[in-house]
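Budget justification note: compute hours in this period were largely spent on complex prediction jobs such as the one shown. Inputs:
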Amino acid sequence: MLNSLFQSRQFGLLVLALIIIVLPFGLQNDFHYDIAIQMGLIAATVVGLNLLVGFAGQISLGHAAFFGVGAYMSAILTGTYGWSPIPVLLFAAVVVGIIAFVVGRPILRLKGHYLSMATLAVGFIIYIIINNERRITGGPDGISVPSLSIFGAELNVFNDYQILGMTLSGTFLWYVLAGVLLLLAVWIAQNIIDSPIGRALRSVHGSEVAARVVGVDTARFKSLVFVISAVYASIMGSFYAHYTGFITPQIASFEHSIVLITMVVLGGMASTLGVILGVVVLKLLPQVLADFQELEMMMFGLILMLTMIFMPKGLLPTLQGLARKYLRKKPEEGV
Amino acid sequence: MLAEFLQYLFTGITIGATYALVALGFTLIYNASHVINFAQGEFLMIGGMATVSLMGMGLPMPIAIILAVILAGILGVALQRLAIAPARQASVVTLIIITIGASIFIRGVAQLVWGKEYHVMPSFGSDQPVRIGGAVMHSQSIWVLLIASILVVLLVLFFTRTLIGKAILATSMNKDAARLVGIRTQLVLMLAFMLSALIGSMAGIAVAPITFTSYDIGIMLGLKGFVAAAMGGLGSGVGAVVGGITLGIVEAMTAGYISSDYKDAVAFSMILLVLFFMPRGMFGSRVVERV
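Corresponding output:
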């Protein structure tokens, strides 16, 4: 009974919701909130990427580019052309979806390292364009982004808002928004996983040939999940741009793509809560390591390497395995 | 006109030879272990940086180079023993992250030891530029081409004439069968990483006088080498060399005639085009997938 509750997907969503509600009691200043908000937005991106990497078993080393295109379209269309943020966000998502569909079809035919190479190449090309088209994107110096406004109401981290007689800071409202977005992202992802699409994807992960033999149109499902994960990245990129108010091409770079996929693998592929844990760890680690100054980079690489060597399945699945062994609720089995 | 073209061509072949050596490093490791080693570029960095700092300690250049190459070789073996071997059961993505972790670690150490600034290495020979048909070449370019050619010939001889070379080839074709005939595959893996590190460091040392060197040059050189290897077809030695030279020439032509801002974009567009039409690269083997 208790066991089945632990296993159910609603349980994970509930745990996440509780954490998001309780967390503000531990956040002491705007800096803490800032990290939490960034974690929320990046986590939602990574939950989308996990659909592709964790469930469909496809590698993407260029996902930050989609995040970057979303962010830059929001920055340019709202900033330079004065469009309204939410329609721009949706428009950007559609554009990114189309880009992902067009490049995804030929790319996803490739396997293993050739697929990593191709996604890396697509990501790099997009990054180079953003970096070089100075007149439109501002080039390496970056570009400022207007704050988010919904139906004319502007959401700015520097303002205070009167809601139901309470004075709430813009930062707190952004925290709420990021929390809601993350929950929504997880909820949608879980519905996809539990749908026939999800089953088809997992069969692709298991054995693509076997999946094709039983009649799964693997090419269609692979490009579908590629588009979905790209749209996730684009939407979160747009929100991220509006939140930080200033973006540089760095957010579309290869390094950022690596960070995103590392979050998936480090936390635990195919585990939605796992990848969120991956985001938390990778976002907190630099804060902790900042004290080591010159040693920071070395220690970051070392921790990354050691974790993956000794926990190849990722943090959360390994911890769960240990807990299960300890509680002896269930005999150990490969999932 | 012609002089200009020759200039770009020579520049392209020089940098292409470097890419080819990096791609050969990828190929060696890929053949032996099916791992793409994202730390490959760091071998080049270690080669160049170690040579510069050893020369700074007053060692003559040839000694400094030999020591730097040995250092890189040890690093290659350490990488295989300490990071790749313990993770034998890990998935492809996990292995990618491990080698990326290793590359960040190596870069971190290099930054700690040598700082963030660029270091200059003197040319092997004279500093006089060489003129060929109106084109002006860095004298070091000749060295790069010479070293790359010698290394390629040596590699060919190694794989066709020596028992160890054949053992590596056998392991890459079928690991279990190789073990059955008495090849110590663990040793072969170690050897492949060592060789790859040796080649990488020599390439790094050879180009350092042209490009300068710093703790982070390995990232882009490594990625370009990966592009070259994938373009030629992972696992193919010929492919790595052809891929490297092609990439170098196309890049130099783009930088010269079109725009230097977009020369990297051309490299990546080219690999996409190749993969669209030849999903296993130009010289990649046709593999029948077993279920």
